[in-house]
Amino acid sequence: MKLGLLGLGFMGSTHLKAIRTIPGLELAAVASDDPAALSGDLSRVVGNIGGPGEKYDFSSLNRYSNFADTVRDPGIDAVDLCLPTHLHAPAAIAALEAGKHVLVEKPMALNAEECSAMIAAARASGRILMTAQVLRFWPTYVVLRERLRAGDLGPVRSALFRRRCAAPAW
After folding, report:
1. Is-above-0.90 flag for pTM?
2. What is the DSSP string of 82-101?
3. What pLDDT shows up at residue 169?
4. Which residues contact 133 (CB under 8 A, 6 or more apart)?
5. Which residue, 73, 57, 51, 59, is CA-closest to 6?
6. What residue spans of the chain are helical by DSSP H?
């Protein structure tokens, strides 16, 4: 599968590190409105997980300064949306209408209406729309789920989970 990564900030950098580890996935395009990031220099990127940004060689990739051109690229099958949240709905809908599968960072959108429009676009296109709810895939959570399903821990009486991170600037 050929992927276009939209957004090269903190989450884009984090996704980029993961993309390198997925067999059968080829990064074919990147998009950013930051010329330094688009050149492959993500060394200024910092966040609350995943370590510092790195420098990448994007010379063999299609590079776009906006998401609209990226989603029209016929050489990509799917897009990974790591854009600011207010762009999630328009970018996802454009990608779905262009026949791309979409992975969208959380939060999915700014309101329920935008989420509903994204879901409707996915249904109409027959493509997959997935929100990057990553904790379900983290090894600790996978083991906990398996142990609960197997009955190893007895019945669940209560659970409280919190994930703490900085509040969004918006």
Report:
1. no
2. -S-GGGHHHHHHHHHHTT-E
3. 62
4. 106
5. 73
6. 10-19, 35-38, 67-71, 88-97, 112-125, 139-150
